[in-house]
# Entry
Amino acid sequence: MSDSALSQPSRLNRLFPSGSFGEMIFRSLCFSAATLTLVAMAGIIVALAIGGWPAFKAFGFNFFLSSEWNPVSEVYGAAGPIIGTLITAFLALLLALPLAIGISVFLVEFCPRILARPIAVAVELLAGIPSIVYGMWGLFVLAPWFAHYIQFPLLIHVSPDTWLGKMVAGVPNGANILTASLILAIMILPYMASVFRELFLTVPAQVREAAYGLGATPFEVVCSVIIPYVKRGLIGVIMLGLGRALGETMAVTFIIGNTHSLPHSLFDSGSTIASTIANEFTEATSEMHSAALTALGLVLFMITFMVLIMARLLIGKRS
Amino acid sequence: MSSNLKRRFINKVFVALCSLSTLLAVGMLALILGSLIVNGAGGLHLSVFTQDQPSPGMSGGLRNAIIGSIAMCVVAMIIAVVLGIMAGTWLSEYSRNSKYGQAIHFLNDVLLSVPSILVGLFVYEIMVRPFHGFSAFAGAVSLALLAMPIVTRTTYDMLQLQPNTLREAGMGLGASQGLVIRSIIWKAAAPGLLTGGLLGFARISGETAPLLFTALGNQFLTLNMTEPMGSLPTTIFQFAMSAYDDWRNLAWVGALLIAMAVLTINILGRVMTRGGKR
Amino acid sequence: MTNKDNTVEDLEQFIAPPAAENLNLEARNLDFYYGTHQTLFNVSLPVERNKITALIGPSGCGKSTLLRILNRIYALYPQQYAVGRVLLDGKDILTDHDTLTRLKERGDTVTLDPLGDDISQIRARIGMVFQKPTPFPMSIYDNVAYGVRLHFNKSRQELDQIVERSLHRAALWDEVKDKLKESGLSLSGGQQQRLCVARGLAVEPEVLLLDEPASALDPVSTARLEETLMELKKDLSIVIVTHNLQQAARISDYTGFMYLGNMIEFCSTDRLFARPKTRRARDYLTGRFG
# Structure
């Protein structure tokens, strides 16, 4: 038994065959627990597919195309929630991304040492605050403020026939696509900022110094060296942020207004897949209604699943 | 030289924008915490913990919801910690480099970020619909499903940190691999494993969406896991969306409680990791 | 306090200092602090034009620190301070607020003659190559053109010429001329290091600082790099930190021996290696420690 054989972890198993019975039990218990991950994953897909099947069968492709969602006449077209999900998630990403990069760059490059640590910790802690808290804040604080200081003035001063007027048309109660996106942005901001910060810290000090040594300004170092250096990981994290925004339920449910038609403007109320399910699932009395909601769940799963897989593939290569 | 001035100007603008975005974020988050305290702290009486949730217009507290939350979280954490530690152990110690192990590792990472509402739908389909009834146990299972990937992942990371010399030393004394894992590796990684549990706990203690159609909610105090059970997040949701002022006030109190609890757990986890790394 | 500012006189205790008018870069009476911990003590270093100056000494003696002061790269880190003067062609470059206050605290009353307050311009005139190759995540061409694009507004043709000339000077052109669009990270370690030399040369610096540039290279790559440096000193001044005594003896004109943050001995390389004045230098050169 040579030392090199021992130090190779993959050989350890073969060197020490699991002899006793108890050993085997422990090992298979661990294996079963790990396999549960696969079972859960497959289970989610299968359960959603079976539960949603009646809706797919009844409405076919119209389920995705129609925006008529009517539990009374039992007609379900999911275009409204699907579009709402995509719009709010992308808007949120658009709002949060530049800020998240700004924060992480500030923490890594410009912040005085004494402040950097507390701010970084605060940002990480705030990423953990439950979404229902953000949602409540959005409903009781952000929405009224938004209606009063932004929506009303715009309604009064902008002619409804102009391009801008059409963008801001809607009931001035602050519950709309834009405020929902704002809340989502606030929610994914600390998460993205703290992971970006970790990514930026992985850039070797010497590479940074080499760029500064050529006389580059901090802006040039960040844009042309640091960001390209972690590009893959950066895109991965953006995808994870998008995944969060797509599947976020409570924060959106509070503030999006929950109407199923296609949103006509930024200030129009709407719905997302997750908010629709959260609002209606317990009250869905008919089979078809709950089937349609489960089908919606499957659509959401497929969207997020693809985003997550892309994210993990991109990030996984890093380590 | 003018291009040089331009570069320095652009850089100044960039630094200003970065500082501003940090200021904006920190300010925004201070605003959120501030409004939580302003709106919630006033209603934070002892009665919140001693009385059950009121009917509209009556006075009451959140006792049933708080106890329900704790009960479901505890059950969920027991499930998640046991399964998660075993799964993480298998990934780290037994699966090395096998294709199946890599696949599980990958799926666990994906499961980590699957929207929680879908986990709720899944548990509804397998536990609520077949037995024709909402139950606290179904709620606990859905929470466990959310916490388990976190525990698995942290366990894996922490076991990977343990040096191979430790494993070799144990086996060199004639201990079996399983014994080495249980008696040496787990012990050495204990603070890290605890952190994993805390992180999972922090994640689920504020979860709302999956509870809506598994545990449903219950306005009375119960500890029977086979019945619907109230929880803080679902009660907050119900109260905040209502039209009654006392309910809304209680919702603020609940939100403050949850935020405080989650922050405390996160800080605790942070302190532990720092201790564990030494 | 004139005795604080008399580096050239101080050097008379050493043998054969470079003539004052030939100095390209000069460090005078430098102290250096990591937080409150002092790592350099009153270190002076003359760098003569078109010569190679080597810095040797055991690990942790401060030779890399000294190099990092010469182009102010240390200033990226908030807890690090240099106190003293660094002159580029007779003009002061350590003119930041921290240094000035600390100079006053130390009791120096010299009047500085600042070169300018734009640190990026100063760094452009003093190139630096690091211990490990540091190619940027971009193509070979863009790596070399990076600094030029920052500081000058050149046409495409001019840029092509500069890139080609720099790669020639770094003795890398023949190896990469067919794959300029490939990533700089695709090169071997030795090639990457010469790419970094080419990148430094492209901005036409007056001084090139090298921090153990050969420590991660194999003997063949090291030999090529040394050849390159011998060729380059016709155009610029070079300061090289090295662990490899043979390397210092082979290529440098002057050598400074440092120990525990002090400049123990500085003189022409031949004299230092043949007849070191101090016992510390003798012990180090004969391999008794370090």
In short: The radius of gyration of chain B is 23 Å. Chain B has a mean pLDDT of 88. Residues 2-43 of chain B form one domain. Chain B touches chain C through four residues (CB under 8 Å).
